[in-house]
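Q: Got a minute? One more chain.
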Amino acid sequence: MRILTVFLLLACGLAQAQAPQPPYQASEPLSWELKNARWFDGRQIQRGNLYVENGVFVAKKPAKVNRKMDLRHQQVVIAPLAEAHNHNLQTAWGWGQYAQTYLDEGVFYAAMLCGDPAAVAEVKPLAATPAAPDVSFVTACITSSDGYPLAAVLPEPSPEAAAAQKQIVLVDSPAQAAEQWPAIKARGGQWLRLVLAHSERPDLRGQLEHFGRLGLTPETAAALTKLAHADGRRVVAHVETAADFDAALAAGVDAIAHLPGYANTLDEPPERFAISDDAVAQAARQHTAVITTTAATDLFRLEAAPLAALRDVQRANLAKLQAAGAPLLIGSDVFIGTARAELHALDALGMDHATLLRLATQDTPRALFPGRKLGCFEPGCEASFLLLAGDPLADLTQVDMPLLRVKQGRLLTRLADVAASSSQVSTSTADPPPQKGGKKKTGKAKSTGKPSSKAAAKPQSKAAGKAKPR
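A: Always. Here it is, folded:
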């Protein structure tokens, strides 16, 4: 297994150095036997054997096994990661640029939070293939007529350009919310996204320099949330400040995108981003999930002192939410990245590794796809996992280079011949060495419980060589 590990690490490094690389392909669903495995169960590392058949974990060894591995309690198996906030897979261009990066980084689940219905329609067939991340799309993104993200999506932001565009729905009052609700429903999707940005600053309205950077009034957000819930839809709210956080909670949204303090575009005092104890308690009571997005702070290239002040607020906000039991979800909002960037950003803020891995591999994927059994290894759970070289609880960077990617029992590989041939029954590191000769000796034969070290090592190396294509 050590030889196999070294080979896989070298192969991963060589593959990353080559560009462009072929896309990932998926084998047929395989039956797996992982002997002497270690896996992260959401709290700690467990030990034992894992079995996979028909795309799910099963209790017993399948009658026919395609892939056997003896992990010798060295490698660690974790569930794939999830990204709760991004925009890079919601167009066909973005998919072509970044979908393979998701698989490279072991991120199998994602939420795209502001897609145009026509653009998303082009992407959905691409996301419906076995060798692709599973994506939840938000196609109803709602802001005010001078709100975010108009300044980012319009070449020349102006009231006329805002009114002419079709990607973002513009609503300025509860009455308009009711009037436009049929058109909002027609955009499809189970979620809609509301934008609250500096909602406590009505004085910013009408100022040209802030056009396209504001958002809904609290009353309009509440009206839209009520309409969505009556129609069986869920709501995620973009927020900037602690006051926006309060307004989102008062509206009754299901999730809040951005921990207040992820950015400070108006150069405001840090206390404007500090969540109050009452708000934290309300978020926990209402089970309102908070998508962290602390990695996005680095995109603003702040000076050392303002950056340190924001990071202090982020630490305090995270500590309060965790202590109260408010649900947290991993999301980066880094267009050129994935949830892995957020994993390391939260690690730098001091969050413990067990909590980080639980959020990334269990809480977040289950929130994105609540009808599925994800992030678990019990019988009936989807057999999607990553094989790591070492223990991520001790060294989080182990997550950065998966040795193996398996999605619903299918091996994901860039090697087309490996994907095509993987369903054949094969030998591996779990197979005992073949016995020479067909007859058993009698008389002085000794019975030993352990083979000699030389006898064990030789077939192990041979088996590792057979298992090398990944």
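A: The two ends are 14 Å apart (CA to CA).
Q: Perfect, thanks.
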